[in-house]
C-alpha cells in the first residue's frame, strides 16, 4: 500500500461531527467522505482492518438491500463510518431511519425517491400518508444527508458502493409503509405472517468472515480497493479465522 500513520490518524483526531445541526453535519461528513473517496490507500487499509479487528467484523452485516462493513466507530467524535455494497435489490418500501446519515456514492448509481410525510412527523405511517416528493439520480460523487424522520426509497444499480456516516440513534426503530409489504409478496408458498410481525428489514443478519473476504475481493475487482492483500493471505495470516 502503504498508508502513512498520519493518513490513518486524521479520522481519529481531526473529525468531530455535530449531529445536532444537520447542515453542519452534512458539511463535515461531506468533507470527510470526499477526502476518503480520494484516498484508496486509506480506504483499503480501513477495509483490511476488519480481518484483524473482531469488533469491527462483528458489526458487519448483511441487510436485505446491502452488505455493510463498519470502517470506523468513535461515538465520542460522532463518527460511525461504514461502507455499503448493493447487490442490486431495492428499498421498495418507503421508510425512515433510526438515525440521520450522510451518503457519498463511490461506484454505481441509483434512483432516489424522497417522499413527503403527511400526518405525524414521526412514527407509524402508511403508503397513503407518504406521497411522492422528489426523485433524484445519485451518481458517483453525489453526497446527501437524510434526517432520521425523512421518508425515502432507493432503486440501486447492482454493485453500487457507497460511503456512509450515521449519527446517533434518534428513535428506537425505523418506520415503514408496511401496508406495501402485502402488495410486494410474490411467493405464495411462503407461510403468511401477520403484517404487524414483519419488518421491512427482515432478513438482516451478521456477515460471515468468508462473505467479508468475497466482498473485499469484489471491491478490489471494481477498483474501489487496492489489491494489496489477497483473501488467501488474510486467511493464512489469521488461521483462527476459518471461513464459515
Ligand atoms: Fe434507507
Number of distinct helices: 7
Query: What kind of sheet is the major sheet?
Result: 7 strands, antiparallel
Structural class: alpha+beta
Q: What percentage of amino acids are in beta strands?
A: 25-35%
CATH architecture: Sandwich
Helix amount, in percent? 25-40%
3D shape: globular
Mean pLDDT: 85
CATH H-level homologous superfamily name: Jelly Rolls
Q: What value does the Rg take, in angstroms? A: 19 Å
- H/E element order: HHHHEEEEEEEEEEHEHH
The molecules bound to the chains, other than polymers, are: fe (ii) ion
As residue ranges, the low-confidence spans are: 1-7, 185-196
Number-wise, the strands total: 11
Say what the CATH topology is.
Jelly Rolls
The tally of domains stands at: 1
Output the strand order for the largest sheet: 8-5-10-3-2-1-11
Distance from N terminus to C terminus (CA atoms, Å) equals: 28 Å
CATH class: Mainly Beta
Which tags fit this structure?
Jelly Rolls, binds fe (ii) ion, 244 residues, globular, 11 strands
What's a quick, concise take on this entry?
The protein has 244 residues and is an alpha+beta fold.
Structural commentary:
This protein is of the alpha+beta class. It has a single domain (5-202, 209-225), classed as Jelly Rolls (Sandwich). 27% of the residues lie in helices and 25% in strands. It is built from 7 helices and 11 strands. The protein has helices at 5-13, 22-37, 40-48, 54-59, 179-184, 209-221, 231-237, and strands spanning 61-63, 66-74, 79-85, 91-95, 101-107, 110-115, 132-138, 143-146, 151-156, 161-166, 205-206. The strands form 2 sheets. A 7-stranded antiparallel beta sheet has the order 8-5-10-3-2-1-11. Strand 1 (61-63) and strand 2 form a beta hairpin. It is globular and about 50 Å long. The two termini are 28 Å apart. It binds fe (ii) ion. Residues 91, 95, 97, 152 line the site of fe (ii) ion.
